[in-house]
């Protein structure tokens, strides 16, 4: 990252980074300062697929990215797109935390990742109000946690950020040309799906009955997003299973138990779908995350 002072006075500030398993926590305290990411830095950062979430604790920061200018004030979160250059401007003394984590931990599709980077998340929503104090304390104490606690805290932070992202996406106003009523109905259906992921009888038909609409209408709603309701259900179930399999535990549940818990009646179908989505079997995922956590 390239850094240059905003004015004649000498540059002053501190940057500290701590690693909690796959989560990197960087805290920057600085006076007036513009900074920019270079194409070389972006190439290095994006060798592994990740997302960086900025949390403003004190002062303010202006983010210029994707042709948009965002003012990040105390208590605000911003999901940034690491594949594009951006400029950070600090008009006064500020303290900013950056949380860099694997993108797959947030369970966001590519289209949702683009949308989530467009606007900051204000501290008013209920989940953000819960997440901000936890993340600030996590950043302040990141260097004090023992090796066995770090991966667990990283996953707790990722789950909180995934919830914040889901809430932010649910509050999006309809895009130009979209039907507002259809958008709201689609969001209600997605919420219904989240509440019933463990129900093996969750199908387009049962969703249609619960919302007093036709199955054809449901298919039209999800076609607008380039998917189907059945694919969406499977995507959310796989994400729930992936998170459950990745959580460290002394006595982890059986793979079949996790699959059945989230509505998969056939383990073989679950295993094939998991491999297609993540490039490895459920058992390989569990082993890989466990070994990675032990190394860190």
Report what the structure shows.
- The chain has helices at residues 39-45, 110-116, 126-140, 150-170, 180-195, 204-211, 215-223, 229-246, 255-261, 267-278, 282-295; strands spanning 2-3, 13-20, 23-30, 33-36, 50-58, 61-65, 68-72, 77-80, 86-90, 94-102.
- The chain is an alpha+beta fold and 296 residues long.
- It folds into 2 domains: 2-162, Sandwich (Jelly Rolls), CATH 2.60.120; 180-295, Homeodomain-like (Arc Repressor Mutant, subunit A).
- The strands form 2 sheets. A 5-stranded antiparallel sheet has the order 1-4-9-6-7, with no helix packed on it. A 5-stranded antiparallel sheet has the order 2-3-10-5-8, with helices on one face.
- Strand 2 and strand 3 (23-30) form a beta hairpin.
- Helix 6 (204-211) crosses helix 7 (215-223).
- Mean pLDDT is 79; it is low at 1-8 and 38-47.
Topology, please?
Elements: E1 2-3, E2 13-20, E3 23-30, E4 33-36, H1 39-45, E5 50-58, E6 61-65, E7 68-72, E8 77-80, E9 86-90, E10 94-102, H2 110-116, H3 126-140, H4 150-170, H5 180-195, H6 204-211, H7 215-223, H8 229-246, H9 255-261, H10 267-278, H11 282-295
Antiparallel strand pairs: 1-4, 2-3, 3-10, 4-9, 5-8, 5-10, 6-7, 6-9
């Amino acid at each position: 990252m390239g850094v240059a002072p905003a004015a004649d006075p000498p540059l002053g500030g501190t940057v500290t980074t701590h690693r909690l398993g796959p989560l990197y926590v960087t805290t920057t305290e600085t006076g007036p300062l513009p900074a920019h990411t270079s194409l070389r830095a972006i190439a290095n950062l994006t060798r592994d697929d990740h997302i960086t979430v900025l949390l403003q604790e004190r002062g303010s920061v202006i983010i210029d990215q994707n042709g948009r200018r965002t003012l990040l004030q105390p208590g605000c979160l911003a999901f940034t797109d690491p594949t594009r250059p951006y400029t950070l401007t600090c008009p006064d003394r500020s303290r900013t935390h950056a949380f860099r984590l694997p993108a797959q931990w947030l369970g966001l599709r590519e289209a949702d990742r683009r949308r989530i980077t467009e606007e900051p998340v204000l501290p008013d929503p209920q989940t953000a109000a819960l997440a901000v104090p936890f993340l600030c304390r996590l950043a302040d104490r990141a260097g004090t946690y023992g090796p066995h606690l770090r991966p667990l805290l990283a996953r707790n932070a990722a789950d909180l950020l995934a919830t914040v992202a889901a809430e932010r996406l649910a509050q999006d106003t309809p895009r130009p040309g979209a039907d507002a009523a259809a958008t709201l109905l689609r969001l209600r259906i997605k919420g219904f799906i989240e509440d019933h992921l463990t129900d093996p009888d969750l199908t387009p038909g049962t969703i249609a009955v619960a919302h007093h609409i036709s199955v054809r209408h449901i298919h039209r709603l999800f076609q607008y997003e380039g998917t189907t309701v059945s694919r969406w259900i499977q995507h959310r179930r796989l994400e729930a299973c992936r998170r459950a399999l990745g959580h460290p535990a002394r006595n982890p549940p059986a793979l079949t138990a996790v699959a059945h818990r989230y509505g998969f009646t056939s383990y073989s179908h679950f295993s094939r779908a998991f491999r297609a989505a993540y490039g490895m079997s459920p058992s390989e995922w569990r082993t890989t995350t466990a070994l990675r956590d032990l190394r860190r």
